[in-house]
């Protein structure tokens, strides 16, 4: 695996993708529905983002919120969305599938990797919901994924540096362990020291005030607009580039 320090940005809209590229990220994980942990973005969103940014684009393929145990209808939707991503020129996808007992569904993950080819496949935080992360890592490697997005099975990656370090050691360069969830410029250097990982994942999101001049306060289902914080992204990338500029990490 590459030993260059790099940042992937979880982006919930095209504006955040553009900000991520401008700040120096190498890749975006494009998602919809941040409140529900991210679901597959629309065809139109994927198409427009692909036309607007040149960095790597990995839409999340998750047909619904909730668990990652999919029935045949869910799995059929998943297959169709992978085909759309391939046709639109995406570089890869972010996906996860589990069996009813919480283990990684290796056979289905292998099928997903075959459908996605030549796109890359990141196993998303379905990994963090497995009962045995060390077994799950071997299953994901066997399925042909190129990286695992993980918080080390904690609520946030900065609280799981030791676990992430164990996963990096187990991986032995066969797959990239990419810490994500709660990664900020203020905790990144400690996380690098503890985990030994090279790729990192953040949304660095901030809530944008509603600019509408009229608002009906009785309507409460509109949600919030979340945008990547360019200043925070640049701070993270500055730290990562600092490690890239040193021979001895």
Structure description:
- The chain has a single domain (6-244), classed as Copper homeostasis (CutC) domain (TIM Barrel, Alpha-Beta Barrel).
- It has 8 helices and 10 strands.
- Helix 1 links the parallel strand 1 and strand 2.
- It is of the alpha/beta class.
- The two termini are 16 Å apart.
Counted by DSSP, the helix tally is 8
- Distance between the first and last residues' Cα: 16 Å
- N-to-C series of helices and strands: EHEHEHEHEHEHEHEEEH
Give the overall silhouette: globular
Enumerate the spans where pLDDT stays under 50 for 5 or more consecutive residues: none
Rg is 18 Å
- CATH architectural designation: Alpha-Beta Barrel
Strand order of the largest sheet: 3-2-1-8
DSSP summary, beta strand count: 10
Report the β-strand fraction as a percent range. 15-25%
CATH topology: TIM Barrel
Give the integer mean of the pLDDT values. Answer: 95
CATH class wording = Alpha Beta
Number of domains: 1
The main β sheet shows up as: 4 strands, parallel
The CATH superfamily turns out to be Copper homeostasis (CutC) domain
Sheet/helix structural class: alpha/beta
Helical amount among residues, as a percent range? 25-40%
